[in-house]
Specification:
Layout: E1 2-7, H1 15-22, E2 28-31, E3 40-44, E4 47-51, E5 64-67, E6 72-73, H2 75-86, H3 92-95, E7 96-99, E8 103-104, H4 107-120, H5 132-140, H6 155-172, H7 180-194, E9 197-199, H8 201-210, E10 215-218, H9 243-249, E11 256-264, E12 267-269, H10 282-290, E13 303-305, E14 307-308, H11 309-319, E15 323-327, E16 337-346, E17 349-351, E18 363-371, H12 388-401, E19 405-409, E20 417-419
Parallel strand pairs: 1-10, 1-11, 2-5, 2-10, 5-7, 6-8, 7-9, 11-15, 14-16, 15-19
Antiparallel strand pairs: 3-4, 12-13, 16-17, 16-18, 19-20
Helix pairs in contact: 2-7, 4-5, 4-6
This protein binds guanosine-5'-diphosphate, 6-O-phosphoryl inosine monophosphate and magnesium ion (MG).
Length: 420
């Protein structure tokens, strides 16, 4: 069976920490979508590490890690990441497998990402500029190069052909940066990738499942950044929701057991796009400061606001969430008053649904107020020992969403997770 851990908001919910915590219970951890736009923070022996493409099970010797076919992979970034996990004494060659169907991010994809954002001007997406959209465009446009192609002698010819096509696009977009250094790094990294265990991911995973092995699929980004159901066009280019597990790994829907949805106790977003509960005031600043809300991949300050129940309920619906994990609950320790958005007011009308074009509407969040618990919860180990006001807050979320909170994270450390 396959369990899934994924984000229910706009990313950075703390998925990495949760996957790292649960990894020892599984035989295989698999990334099924996204690429180096992800930044998953883990603490290993008290030291911080941010993973972008390597699944968050890498620090557990007995757990295998698969980069699935649904991922878009930047070889240069993978090489750097491998160096950083090796510094922790991890033998990454032993435990990382890459699907032969995984698409490659080329230097020109990164350039195209940059050129496309420049063209959008004030309406830019706020992309991480890692080449994600152009790489997925080449996948659906049937031009992309895959990890399995690296083992074929026609690779360089195929590369040159695609590069030429990209160059024409870049010329049209008036983008003239010199890419020779990026290309040099890229070719070095390809040699590095060729030495990995490149597998037929779908057989690799299904053979394991048939033998009763357990798989944990690790989501990147968040449900509101899903290319179909997120706040389009301010989204990423993959299906971040549970359905993406089937196409991104080659597993059947019946194999999926638990869908564990991760949400912060409040809400953040990095990059452009609608964010109905955003706080552009001192309270938002306080959330950013206490929550240390700066991007793990780009270092950009994250926009902060109250928990958006409407968006969360939508995310629970499209993912089929069976268990909820609330992270960063400790960040709210100091607040006198907390709020949760329970409806949207649009043109004077109340709604509890996510509208079609959120970015073109003026959405006023309808906020329910809660008294803050004003207690330091970072050392609490048991749910029953949490302040009553906090348990009331959690109870309200459970009822509003119709999903039970199974865990509460009360700090970045691996031991700071309370089972309910
Ligand atoms: P991911 O992309 O979903 O894995 O999340 P990120 O790593 O981008 O961002 C989450 C940030 O919050 C990281 O800096 C984590 O170390 C931190 N974090 C995770 N859980 C908690 C928590 O419960 N409390 C606090 N204070 N920080 C947390
Ligand atoms: P993790 O896995 C937060 C956002 C970008 C931008 C939009 C499109 O760490 O939660 P892209 O680079 O995909 O073209 O950017 O999506 N974004 C993320 N925001 N966490 C992420 O990943 C993100 N990955 C992409 O900021 O708004
Ligand atoms: Mg992140």
């Amino acid at each position: 069976m396959v369990d899934v851990i994924l984000g229910l908001q706009w990313g950075d919910e703390g998925k990495g920490k949760i996957v790292d915590y649960f990894a020892p219970r599984y035989d295989l951890i698999a990334r099924f979508q996204g690429g180096p736009n992800a930044g998953h923070t883990l603490y290993v022996d008290g030291k911080k590490i941010v993973l972008h493409q390597i699944p968050s099970g890498i620090f557990h010797e007995k757990t295998a890690n698969l980069i699935g076919n649904g991922v878009v992979l930047d070889p240069v970034i993978l090489k750097k990441e491998c160096d950083s996990v090796a510094a922790f004494g991890v033998d990454y060659r032993k435990n990382i497998y890459i699907s032969q169907r995984t698409h490659l991010i080329l230097p020109t994809h990164r350039a195209l990402d940059k050129a496309s954002e420049m063209l959008k001007g004030a309406e830019k997406i706020g992309s991480t500029l890692k080449g994600i959209a152009p790489a997925y465009m080449d996948k659906t446009g049937r031009n992309g190069l895959r990890v399995g192609d690296l083992l074929d002698k026609s690779f360089t010819t195929q590369y040159i052909r695609l590069r030429l096509k990209h160059q024409k696009l870049l010329d049209n977009l008036n983008f003239h940066e010199d890419l020779s250094e990026w290309e040099e790094e890229f070719f070095e990294a390809l040699d590095f990738i060729r030495q990995f265990k490149i597998v037929n991911g779908e057989y690799f995973i299904n053979e394991r499942l048939a033998k009763g092995k357990t798989v944990l699929a690790e989501g990147a980004q968040g449900s509101m950044l899903d290319v179909d159901f997120g706040t389009f066009p301010y989204v990423t280019s993959s299906n971040t929701i549970s359905a993406g597990v089937c196409t991104g790994l080659g597993v059947a829907p019946q194999q999926i057991r638990d869908v564990i949805g991760v949400s912060k106790a409040y809400c953040t977003r990095v990059g452009g796009g609608p964010f109905p509960t955003e706080l552009e005031d001192a309270t938002g600043e306080q959330l950013r400061k206490i929550g240390n809300e700066f991007g793990a991949t780009t270092g950009r300050p994250r926009r902060c606001g109250w928990m958006d129940g409407v968006a969360l309920r939508f995310a629970c619906m499209i993912n089929g969430v069976t268990k909820l994990v609330i992270t960063k609950a400790d960040v709210l320790d100091a607040f006198e008053e907390l709020k949760i958005c329970t409806a949207y007011k649009i043109n004077g009308e109340m709604s509890t649904e996510i509208p079609f074009q959120m970015n073109r509407l003026k959405i006023e969040p309808v906020l329910q107020s809660f008294e803050g618990w004003k207690t330091d919860i970072t050392a609490t180990k048991k749910y029953d020992n949490l302040p009553l006001k906090m348990r009331d807050y959690v109870q309200f979320i459970n009822q509003y969403l119709g999903v039970r909170t199974a865990y509460i994270s009360n700090g970045p450390g691996k031991d700071q997770l309370i089972e309910n």
